[in-house]
Amino acid sequence: MRRASGDSVDTIGRMRKRGIRVLPGGDYGFAWNPHGTYARDLLLFVDLLGFTPMETLVAATRMGGEIMGRANELGQIRPGYLADLLLVDGDPLADIKRLQRPDALLAIMKDGRLHKAP
Q1: Rounded Cα gap, residues 57 and 54, in angstroms
Q2: SS3 content of the chain, % helix, strand, coil (to 5)
Q3: Which residues contact 112 (CB under 8 A, 6 or more apart)?
């Protein structure tokens, strides 16, 4: 398993150097990656793959909208875009692990409506 993950890290590094978009996300709900642990992907991008926190968040947001063919409505905070937002206590650019802490999520907006009010 360790060799396979090392090969993956190497391959992803080569992909990035060639300008290929690499985004967090994938199939979830398995024993080793259960539902509710999605923010762990962001930490892995920083700690394992060498992305900066900013590169990681851009890959998870703006580039996510682009790769889904919805760049004009997803992944950015702009007029006319769908409003799915997190208000986080702290700076995820200084500590990406903040996004894994439920108590750090002060407000959650889904489709422009508050799911969790501050």
Answers
A1: 5
A2: 40, 15, 45
A3: 82, 83
Q: What is the pLDDT of residues 66-86, one digit of tens each?
A: 999 999 999 999 999 988 899
- Which tokens belong to 97? 């692990």
Instruction: List pLDDT tens digits, range 46-61.
Output: 998 999 999 999 999 9
Phi, psi of 75 (to 5 degrees): 90, 0
A 10 A CB-CB count for 24 gives: 20
Q: What is the pTM of this model?
A: 0.84
From 69, 68, 25, 24, select the one nearest 45 (Cα to Cα).
24
End-to-end CA distance of the chain: 42
Rg (CA), the chain: 15
Residue 33 bridge partners (DSSP)? 30
Q: Tokens in use for 6? A: 């090392």
CA atoms of 83 and 48, how far apart (whole Å): 30
